[in-house]
Specification:
By secondary structure, the protein is mainly β. It has three helices and eleven strands. The chain has one domain (2-33, 45-175): Jelly Rolls (Sandwich). The chain has helices at 2-16, 25-28, 41-44; strands at 50-52, 57-59, 77-83, 91-98, 104-109, 118-120, 125-131, 137-144, 150-158, 161-162, 171-175.
Length: 176
C-alpha cells in the first residue's frame, strides 16, 4: 500500500511541475504559473478572465545563430496565458506583430502541433493558434537575435475575449 501511495504521490508531483518542465531552466525561471500573489493583488489586477501572466518586458538579444533554437539563451522570453475559470481544450489565437527590422521566432509552444520555429519577419504580422491544457494554461517562447530596439506586440484572444496584462493591456516584448 505504501508503494502505491508513493507512486501516486510522485505522479501528482510530476504533473504539478509539468507546466513548463521541458523548457531550459533560464526560461522556466520566467514562469509565473502557480505564483502566490501578495494580499490585495486582486484589487490591482485589471486583466479579466484571460490573463497574460507576464507584464511588458525587455530582454537582451540572443547571440547570433541562436534565435531559432530553444536553448536557454538570454533573448528567450516566456509568455504565458491563463483562463479563469479554466477552459481546457479551448483555442487561443495569438497575433504577433514585429515592429522591428530583424526576425523574431516562436521557439516553443505548450500545447500546439505547430511546426517550430515560427518566424515573425521584421515589420510583419503573424497569427498562430494553440489550445489550453486542463488547467486553462498555455505559453509560447519567443527569441530574437537582432536586438537594437526590436518590439513584438502580442495580442491573444479566446473567442471574443482578449488576453490582458494585470494593467489591462496587451503584451509587448522589447529586445535591446
Amino acid at each position: 500500500m505504501k508503494k502505491v501511495l508513493s507512486i501516486v504521490f510522485l505522479v501528482m508531483l510530476a504533473a504539478a511541475v509539468m507546466g513548463c518542465a521541458s523548457l531550459p531552466e533560464f526560461v522556466q525561471d520566467q514562469s509565473r504559473k502557480d505564483v502566490d500573489e501578495s494580499e490585495g493583488w486582486d484589487e490591482q489586477d485589471s486583466s479579466g478572465p484571460v490573463k497574460f501572466l507576464q507584464v511588458q518586458t525587455t530582454a537582451p538579444a540572443s547571440d547570433e545563430g541562436t534565435g531559432m533554437v530553444l536553448d536557454g539563451s538570454f533573448g528567450e522570453r516566456l509568455l504565458e496565458i491563463l483562463t479563469v475559470p479554466a477552459k481546457p481544450g479551448t483555442d487561443v489565437v495569438w497575433n504577433l506583430k514585429n515592429k522591428g527590422d530583424s526576425d523574431i521566432y516562436v521557439v516553443a509552444a505548450k500545447n500546439s502541433s505547430m511546426e517550430l520555429p515560427v518566424t515573425v519577419p521584421g515589420g510583419e504580422e503573424v497569427e498562430v493558434s494553440d489550445i489550453f491544457d486542463d488547467e486553462g494554461y498555455t505559453y509560447l517562447v519567443f527569441d530574437n537575435e537582432g536586438g537594437g530596439g526590436i518590439t513584438l506586440e502580442v495580442r491573444a484572444a479566446v473567442g471574443e475575449e482578449s488576453a490582458k496584462t494585470t494593467r489591462g493591456k496587451y503584451m509587448k516584448i522589447l529586445w535591446f
